[in-house]
Every structure is written in C-alpha cells, then in structure tokens.
Design brief:
Number of domains: 2
Number of helices: 7
Distance between the termini: 33 Å
Number of strands: 4
Strand order of the largest sheet: 2-1-3-4
Order of helices and strands: HHHHEHHEEEH
Bound molecules: FE2/S2 (inorganic) cluster
CATH topology of the largest domain: Glutaredoxin
C-alpha cells in the first residue's frame, strides 16, 4: 500500500478489513471485488494488484474476473449507472432504440460516462421485469415501458435534480 495520499490510504485500509473478513468464504474473490468497487467506485489496476497481493493469487485471476462480469468497471463510473436490459423481451420491444435515445440525450456511447460525472450507460441481461419491456435500472429502481423521449427525459431530469 505504497501511497502518500491519506484519503486513499483510508480506502485501502477499508479494503484490507473487507479482505480479512471475506477470506473465510469459500470463493471470496467476487464478494471482495463487489465491496472494493463500492469503496473505490471502480476497480483500477492498482486496486486489483492490491487484492491479488493480499489474497496471494495471480493478478491475472483478478483481472480475468473483473473483465468477465459487466457489473465490474475499470473506469470511474458516474453517480447514476443506467443499466439498459438487452434480454430477449426488451430487445424485441426496442432496447436498441432505447439505448440510442439515451446515447443521444446524454451525448455518450454505451459504456461511457457523461462529462459531468452524473451518468454511466451500461447494459444488463434480463432482470426479471420482462412485462415492462423495454426497461432500464438506475440503482435499485426499475423503469419500464420507456418508449418515448419524453418519458426518458422525465426520469433523467429527476436524477439530475437530486444529483
Ligand atoms: S428481458 Fe428485459 S427484463 Fe426481462
């Protein structure tokens, strides 16, 4: 943990506590990565290296897991992460159009974060709300039947207002 930034050191100390706790589990890596992403907001190479060192596993194993699951990010994410469902029902009901509307509205591409750091756009597989297709989630909330720009704008405005 060679770091002269005290704030950052506190984050690494938190992560160390998590690692010590989770090492009791049978497969602790995914749980540790989830918590690390909560602590740091994303999983940069130095955090992956730290986890690998502490767990005494090759950093390639950590990297492989981070890149395998799309809920892990190696880039800083926006305050609000928009997960558009690209499962079958949502796809059939216009997920591609929805993605395009969001991209245009926020001036970004899939996987990117807005310049003001408010929103990141990613995709997910079916979240079990197929009857509301096409849907996206922000945090714990599911927004369904987003078939017009007005509906989309109303939702995005709400999150911008409470930014
Ligand atoms: S396919 Fe999108 S919620 Fe099921």
């Amino acid at each position: 943990m060679a770091n002269n930034n005290p704030a950052k050191n506190i984050l690494y100390q938190k992560l160390q506590v998590v690692i010590d706790e989770k090492m009791e589990l049978q497969n602790p890596l995914i749980e540790i990565l989830h918590q690390a992403q909560e602590i740091f907001g994303y999983l940069p190479a130095e955090v992956q290296q730290f986890i690998a060192d502490q767990m005494r596993i090759p950093v390639g194993s950590v990297y492989g897991t981070v890149t395998f699951y799309n809920f892990f990010s190696m880039e800083p994410r926006g305050k609000h992460v928009i997960n558009v469902c690209t499962g079958t029902a949502c796809y059939v009901k216009g997920a591609s159009k929805l993605i395009q509307m969001i991209e245009e509205e926020l001036s970004l591409n899939m996987g990117e974060t807005t310049k003001d750091g408010q929103f990141t756009l990613t995709s997910v597989r079916c979240v079990g709300a197929c009857s509301l297709a096409p849907i996206f989630t922000i945090g714990e909330e599911i927004f369904g039947q987003i078939d017009s720009r007005n509906k989309l704008k109303t939702i995005l405005d709400k999150f911008n207002r409470y930014a």
